Amino acid sequence: VFTLFALAALATAQDTLESVKAAFESAGIVGDVIPAFDPSVLLTVTFTNPDGSPLSFTAGTLLTPAQAARRPTFSISPADPSTTFLVAEVDPDAPTPQSPTSAQIRHFLGPNFSVVGSTLANTTAALSDYRGPSPPAGSDPHRFVV
Questions:
Q1: CA distances (Å), 76 to each of 5, 7, 83, 91, 103, in order?
Q2: Higher pLDDT pick, 61 / 128
Q3: pLDDT tops 60 at residue 11
Q4: The pTM is what?
Q5: Among residues 86, 90, 106, 109, which one has the least CA distance to residue 33?
Q6: Where does the source fall among the domains of life (predicted)?
Q7: Which of 43, 47, 132, 138 has the smallest number of Cβ neighbours within 10 A?
């Protein structure tokens, strides 16, 4: 099990910049993983269920590795089509939060994401393809930061 967070913000219309900022602070991401966090855009991370339907969640929600097995898609609001992004997904708690000796594990790194509508589309190959989470048995939940 791991907890998913996004650096700009995360997940569904239920999230606000304020709720994402609070989730980052509550989880210790601010100060432990990043020095400060003052989001100005809402990044939506969408994983899909095995049937292809979107998986709805909010920042700080516990997800199983199976729920995050497939590479997510991203959208952003407000969307500025003149901006490009680098998307990085990391696990700061590997192999376990109790003993994070391998932290930071990179799950994805993709440059040149641009806004198409409100979706972020990657225009070049990823620097490292998506690697789903695989925490060891007995691990406490991991923070999975996008």
A1: 14, 12, 11, 22, 27
A2: 128
A3: no
A4: 0.81
A5: 90
A6: Eukaryota
A7: 138
pLDDT at 8: 41
Q: If DSSP states are collapsed to H, E and C, what string results for the chain?
A: CEEEECCCCCCCCCCCHHHHHHHHHHCCHHHHCECCCCCCCEEEEEEECCCCCEECCCCCCEECCCCCCCCCEEEEECCCCCCEEEEEEEECCCCECCECCCCCEEEEEEEEEEEECCEEEECCCCCECCCCCCCCCCCCCEEEEC
Phi, psi of 17 (to 5 degrees): -55, -40
**Domain containing 34: what range?**
17-122
Number of domains into which the chain is organized: 1
In a domain, 96, yes or no: yes
- Average pLDDT value over all residues in the chain: 82
Residues 6+ apart with CB under 8 A from 141: 1, 2, 3, 62, 97
Give the CATH number for residue 56: 3.90.280.10
Cis-peptide into 81, omega within 30 deg: no
How far, in Å, CA of 143 to CA of 100, rounded? 11
**Best CA proximity match to 66, nearest among 53, 54, 87, 48:** 48
Q: Residue 104 is encoded by which pair of tokens?
A: 């930071």
